[in-house]
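Quick one - inputs below.
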Amino acid sequence: MSSIENKDGANLKAELIADFQTSQAVLNGKSALPVHQLRSEAMKSFDKLGFPTIRHEEWKYSNVSNLVKQTFDFHTKTDFNQTDLEKIPLPHLTGNVLYFINGVYNAELSQIATPESKLQVLPFSVALAQQPELIEGYFGKYANYETDAFTALNTALSNDGVVVKVADNKVVEEPIILRFIADARTANVGSQPRNLIVVGQNSQVKIAEAYRTVGDEAAFVNTVTEIIVGESAMVDYYKVQNESDKSYHIGTTQVYQKGRSYFYAATATLNGGFVRNNLNVVLDGEHIESHLYGLYVPNGKQHVDNHTLVDHQKPNCESNELYKGILMDKSTGVFNGKIFVREDAQKTNAYQNCRNVVTSDEATMNTKPQLEIWADDVKCSHGTTTGQLNDEAIFYMQSRGIPKKEAIRLQLLAFAQDVVTQIKIDSIREYIEELILEKLEAAR
Amino acid sequence: MLTISNLHARIEEKEILRGINLEIKPGEVHAIMGPNGSGKSTLASVLAGREDYEVTEGSVTFNGKDLLDLAPEKRAAEGIFLAFQYPVEIPGVTTINFLKTALNEIRKYNGQEPLDAAQFLKRMKEKAKLVKIDDALLKRSLNEGFSGGEKKRNEIFQMAMLEPTLGLLDETDSGLDIDALRIVAEGVNQLRDEKRSFVVVTHYQRLLDYIVPDFVHVLYKGRIVKSGTKELALELEEKGYDWIKNEVDALEVA
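Output:
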């Protein structure tokens, strides 16, 4: 490994590299397996890339310098249990509910409802240690560890998460809900969940990832989810973030869609000190549909950055993207939406829209649509708006007897509805609605 | 019921109302007419509490209360309703939910229990008939994609639902064809009774064929320069506003 330069990030980087060397030492001769070879490659890549700075185009508005100055314990023992869980309810959860505490699967808290004939669920750690052949064809094949430092880091060091496989021609009725809880009650904690979701052809499934912090210390969550959507399969994917002001969340969801498949994503960021979500979708087949929705409601000094990439590689596909933000106080937001339409991808329809309401003079939103189109017979559009509350609408409501605060709340709720109503797991949608209400209430 | 004394109001540095005096008693309908820019809509807006305007002088009392001291929502709860010249579209909020919230806020202010779902629906069905407004329209986002006529009918429907004691109609006739105008006017007429009063702001006399006023006032340069009965409106229709302008301007020069 190359020497560590004395610059921002040296602490965390050195810590992580040492961590990797320790993990290598206990592989007991398995290091020659392809999976471990790949992890080694990823570590080399991380070492070379280092943590990004704001000089890096993709990180221009999201500065990780505060993150990389700190240290985090990636192996904190936690006694987080049912009683603790009851304090952070997510009501009416049914179906397959899996808990990960500091990134580690907790079987006691979890429940699996769907029979194995339809759905195979196992902890990533088990797959890695005992059945690497299960993940070999997929793991690290989609999420790019060569260019993205955080993905490289996760690929090299992730020690748990979930592997979900849906067999062909199955409709999984029960949702799969993954709850990631960072237990920062005693120390700065780090976790690197890694999820692999492989959906067989002509199958249907709904998956949600819900992130939450407990405790007042700092938490660093570096998560990567790879989703492979088989031919004619339908996948709904929701990501819900309700993390603490001292948390850093960096996540990549890498989606690979085959022909005639349908992928529907909604990302709702309710809370989090520093949040960066990358959602990358590759449409590698014809007649694919991709829908990407996002909602973020930062307040205080929260920072939320959504980067999306929709990569149209084949003809006759459609993608549609709508991100909405409500920015309060001194919060900052970033939306960077890339759409690629490759030379082959004729007859592509690709739409992108990002709309924001800024309720304070001190909040900032940076938006950047980026369309790169190499095909000539396509329909693409994009638009971004960032505005204030509509005063005339507020006066209109007041003139009907609705108090001003309530009028503002109604207007913002209505603004968020376009995204919230896209979420088809009732418990998750209601949870999000509840959190938005809470947040707008606090803004009074 | 409503007493306006020497009311002055301005927007930014421009004085628009320059001493309005007007007394409205229960059950009366007052028409406010006048050329463009005379301050008609400003008067309606100031009464409803629009923040853009600053009242610099004078007073308005409504049922003994200092109206200018109340927030717009409290004025509404006290019984004032402004039918907007340009009703606002509010995406994501259905007319039904909007009105349920509004109605129950007003009831709360007046110490009444909220209406339950059944009572609310009953009232809604009843009032929707008044202005021949379609149920389906009420389930849609408030005014979003409504035609001009539908928006104006929705204003009168809302007024019927909220049962104010003073209705301010701000150029409700603008942009309406004759059929829509009739429907809107009929809706208003059915709401007329001995306790409820109206201020009808309009540029043209046509609306007053259907909503027959007790008094007609002509506003010019921020003052009421002439008052009369419905015949005054007919005279204005025939002769236009110039003769009044000339009279007033001549006095100013003198």
